[in-house]
Amino acid sequence: MRARAAVLRAKDGPYVIEDVRLAAPGTGELLVRISGAGICHTDLLPRVPDYPAMPPIVAGHEGSGVVEEIGPSVTGLEPGDHVVLTFDSCRACENCYAGHPAYCDTFLVRNLTGVGLGDSAPMQDADGKQISARWFGQSSFASHSIVAARNVVKVDSSLPLEILGPLGCGMQTGAASVLIALGVTAGTSIAVYGTGAVGLSAVMAARVAGAAKIIAVDVSPKRLELAAELGATHTIDGSTDDVVRQIRGITGSGTQFALDSTGVPAVIVNAITALRQTGTCGLLGVVKGDLILPASVLALGRNVKGILEGDAVPQVFLPKLIDLWQQGRFPFDRLVETFPLERINEAEQAALAGEVVKPVLLPNG
């Protein structure tokens, strides 16, 4: 079928809106008409010079939309269903069976190469040449997407579908890292380093969990102000050289939990150093360079944990996030600003400049 997509043809070039052709959904697949697609910093990886995801490619991994067609062997879904798209996993390896699909044996190739496991390519350009369209199993910067049925979460048709896509990755990552991976409980303390969409989702989740002290650390006064409105009990300017001292002043012995979404080594060292004994720091961002820790930092029982997608099972966790939003306890919609697909380059720059927390593209709106 014919569709439109924002195609990245060069790592240092702009997205180009093109007419493309999509194959029919294969076994276990769906054709989804995209209602909204969030822009996440992970979508910048195909721009990295030595990164293996190569143009031409369609990125986008926070999609939502309406099922238009189902392929063979699909059960539990039908045309007209409203769905949120999320990360791909095999659902058959040991970690998937154990309820940890984000740690699927094939997670990296399924989600971060753009070509998946080398199965048939679902997208071609006007000249019949293949375009990589398996980014996180969805490549949702397009009017339509071919998605594995295991890759979607059905939602109620009364919900504002166009803004739900970011729940499938960035907001799931921040919230589930707090509620599942770290297991933050009532009365505890947590410091969140970086207050983009992931960090602010963590702040909101920490409030849901009942954390007594929720400390947001960032260099943007505007983001820190928003963090305070969304649940942070304290905010710290991350550009100062006494972040650790300030956190210990707030907590006494340090935080029980910390979460870093910046990937900046110096910030991570501060996050770990500012933990109390037995405290745990979760790392979400790709670390930008070598991470060197002083020998004494971990000697006192502090822990460091790498986290993917919050260790969530999306089909279980996303309905809970939506319930919290409907109760007014997880107001993720305050982070969203929408753009037509044709303004994708403007939206990308707005995200990079920190002008918009979560840009959401509307390919059909």
UniProtKB/TrEMBL annotation:
It comes from the Bacteria. Its cofactor is Zn(2+). Belongs to the zinc-containing alcohol dehydrogenase family. SMART domains: PKS_ER (SM00829). This is NAD(P)-dependent alcohol dehydrogenase. PROSITE patterns: ADH_ZINC. Residues 15-361 form the Enoyl reductase (ER) domain. Keywords: Metal-binding, Oxidoreductase, Zinc. Pfam families: ADH_N, ADH_zinc_N. InterPro entries: ADH-like_C, ADH-like_N, ADH_Zn_CS, ER, GroES-like_sf, NAD(P)-bd_dom_sf.
